[in-house]
Amino acid sequence: MIRILDPTLRSPATPVALSRAPRPRRLAGATIGLLANGKSNGMALLEQVATRLRERHQIGDVVRVAKTNASAPVNESDTEALAARCVAVITAIGD
Amino acid sequence: MIDAQELTSREGIDVADPWGAIEACYAEGWTDGLPVVPPTEPLVCAMLAAGPWKADEVLLHEPVRGRSVTADKAAINAVMAGCLPAYFPVVGAALQAIGDASFMLHGPATSTGGAALMVIVNGPIRERLGLNAKTNLLGPGYRANATIGRSLRLVLLNCLDCRPGVLDKSTQGWPGKYSLCFAEDEASSPWGPLHVSRGFAAGQSTVTVFAAESGHNVLSHGTADPEQLLTCFADAMAGLGSLSPGRTVIVLAPEHAGHLHRAGWARGRTQQWLYDHAWRSLADLKRGGKVEPAFYTNPGLVDWLYRDAPRGRPTLGPNPADAGHVLDGDEAIRVHRGLDPDDILLTVGGGDAGGHSAFFPSWSRGRSVPFVTKEVPV
Description:
Oligomer: heterodimer
Largest interface: A-B, 21 and 52 residues
Number of helices of chain B: 13
Strand order of the largest sheet of chain B: 5-4-6-13
Distance between the termini of chain A: 50 Å
Shape of chain B: globular
Structural class of chain A: alpha/beta
Number of strands of chain A: 4
Helix content of chain A: 25-40%
Structural class of chain B: alpha+beta
């Protein structure tokens, strides 16, 4: 028999345990984050979503973060600001 | 020698014979479509032993998806690509280069643009490994070129899930995505080795990486005059299809490089001339639908479009509604490929016969990612 080794990362040596953030029960008055991924029309798409959420769910403030580059991860200070201020965050790619 | 006990994982598949192993790799989705060398423990350990890295050392961390590629996983993929162990230091250095934070690998690895990972090798290791810098250097025929470049692609496929339709969403892709690695023909360069121009010593060996769209042949047999010759390059660079604020790689054929050398053109002068002449008018861009309304809300793209405008950059910003309309003055606004002459990387390679060079635009209609050079560990 020949053993061939797995070239993938399907079996990481140290699995990372992540859990889902608590889901909000209602959106009325809630501060919502909009995280545009850096493509040209991401924020335009998110603004439309925010408008609908205002109409249907009476959301409160909106916090906008636009990544400067779609290839880069969101930076830590933006992540912390969104986590500190928002009940929920919506992200979008819009090319 | 590395002991198999040192590997971060010994998980795999048991098969009866080498032919079964090749088919098992296909069945698992571990290939780029071509057959791979089955990565057995002895082959992987020999590969790993040829580099300076421990099995669990991370050579590439991709922060968007939080994936870390350890040296042993890189070695497995290098074996599969067909590398000899002596190639592994180059593979590892190239992985470190594309993993550099400034390279922002997630974009070129996944985008519809379909970038290849170009690897340019400089320094003494070129000859030690038999890397081709001469005839057909961008084509087939040389094990080191073919397998080092292929190793990067297999790592993307197997470790970062950049499989077609999964995370690799290339609209078309191109054959350079299988492998795109070559050595610079340093002896034919009018300006000394590329890596020396980037701050390394001639005795060091390096890799320089670039996220490349498909190349364009620049044919010129009829002139030795630098300005006539470079006019052909600038024209290719100014094509509307790939015009962007991004970067450029020019692989000069030795014949073309010789013309510039005999005329005494320095690297900087050549870069400056190409930058100055590789432009289209803003009116042309608009006629080709290359100016999108959303560009006008992006300060970087506004800067690119208007940085050379005779009346300077608009203070209040142009109106997005005008993106599709040619306005008075647009004919006089030159929009260059790239943002400055240093966005044009000049390297030399190819057969001694023939006036065929190549232009490679960077991936993305935006600024894309920088050139990154790393030393190959001895």
